[in-house]
Design goal:
The protein is mostly beta strands and about 375 residues long. The protein is about 5% helix and about 35% strand. The protein has a 5-stranded antiparallel β-sheet with strand order 1-2-36-35-34, with no helix packed on it. Strands 4-5-8-9 form a 4-stranded antiparallel β-sheet, with no helix packed on it. Strand 8 (about 95-100) and strand 9 (about 105-110) form a beta hairpin. The longest helix has 12 residues, at about 15-25.
Length: about 375
């Protein structure tokens, strides 16, 4: 295993970095961005191989977007919400919902979210596409208003391709059981037909508008069905936000992330739902927050992320693979386009690495989609 290029210091200045980049460099608009009315279905599906072994480029997103949690449902990739940008700089959250069809190699517009949100947790559950929690942005002074509500649409509706006017469907997103508390930058999984949400951030007190209003949490919630209520489960040992997670067999791996007080973490913890117990395994070779992860072939793959210290910070190009049998990480070819605030989805024995930002914080938001195929 080679050594990591970056060794970011512990950071209290993360408050400054997130807030200043979004309010200053990002010039966030408080106007919610609506879903595009046009489809990307006519975009070329041609895949272009890159010089980095194992990587290729795919059809880009119809819009540049970061702080996303894409997911797979019935053979397609779904992406909804996030921060959108113009000329790379964040303009605000969006309600846009995009659907990728691998057979056509094209993105098309899906049913927009009821309200624009960034960081909504998207996951397939109980025959539905779920969008849960995240943040709304009602004003320039309230960019991080964390939500506890969520919505669902059926799998059939989730593959709807938008059209103008009279062709729009009558159906809409329906409400799902409200979380016990607002949730943002958490991780989700479906284990034994139960929806799990763990970690992330929550309001530290009554205020709920800015990054400074929030604190990390280790809380763990479970939903047995869309007609049930949330229950609690064993908390994750390391409270953190902006981590990444994926299932390997019956085990849920949560890796990396950051803490509000101390910055990036390399923590790697595994949940066994049969025992309702967490265990600590080999940490990520370096702390990476705002990363993405996906599993394939019984292994866990981790991509990207950002760091704020030393100033001015940057984005990680390093990518890693974890073998549970060896309890060890190894490096894999670096990302052709290093990004943070991105998503990773396994589909057809490949990992799609989607969207994100090429620069730290709100800078250089991207529509890029790259595919990693293990060699």
């Amino acid at each position: 295993m080679r050594h990591a290029k970056h060794n970011p210091a512990s950071l209290n200045p993360e408050f400054r970095s997130r807030r200043e980049v979004l309010l200053g460099l990002g010039a966030v608009s408080v106007t919610a961005c609506t879903a595009p009315s046009t489809s990307a279905g006519d975009m070329s599906p041609e895949r272009v191989e890159t010089a980095t072994s194992g990587w290729s480029t795919s059809t880009p997103l119809p819009l540049a977007v970061q702080e996303i949690y894409p997911t797979a449902l019935q053979g397609r990739i779904h992406l909804a919400g996030g921060f959108v940008a113009e000329s790379g700089a964040i303009t605000g959250p969006t309600n846009a919902h995009q659907v990728f069809d691998p057979e056509r190699g094209a993105w098309s517009a899906g049913l927009p979210l009821p309200t624009a949100r960034h960081h909504p947790h998207l996951i397939a559950f109980d025959g539905h596409l779920i969008a849960l929690g995240g943040f709304e942005t009602p004003s320039a002074d309230a960019i991080w208003v964390m939500q506890s509500s969520g919505w669902a649409i059926t799998a059939d509706m989730a593959t709807w391709e938008s059209a103008a006017g009279e062709n729009a469907p009558m159906e809409s997103w329906a409400s799902v059981p409200t979380l016990p508390r607002p949730a943002g930058e958490a991780v989700t999984a479906v284990i034994d037909a139960n929806l799990h949400l763990v970690g992330g951030r929550r309001p530290a007190a009554e205020a709920n508008a800015t990054w400074q209003d929030h604190t990390d949490t280790s809380e763990h919630f479970i939903l047995g069905g869309l007609d049930s209520v949330w229950e609690t489960a064993a908390p994750i040992p390391t409270a953190r936000n902006s981590a990444a997670a994926s299932m390997i067999g019956e085990n849920w791996h949560v890796v990396g992330g950051r803490t509000v007080a101390d910055g990036n973490t390399s923590a790697h913890e595994v949940y066994d739902a049969r025992e309702d117990r967490w265990r600590t395994v080999a940490p990520l070779p370096q702390g990476q927050g705002g990363l993405a992860a996906a599993s394939l072939g019984g292994k866990l793959y981790a991509f990207g992320g950002e760091y704020f210290q030393p100033s001015p910070g940057g984005v990680f190009s390093e990518s890693w693979v974890y073998s549970p049998n060896e309890d060890a990480w190894s490096s894999i070819p670096e990302m052709p386009s290093p990004r943070h605030g991105l998503g990773a989805v396994t589909l057809n024995d490949e990992i799609y690495v989607i969207g994100g930002a090429l620069g730290v914080g709100g800078q250089e938001t991207s529509a890029r989609v790259e595919i990693f195929t293990p060699q």
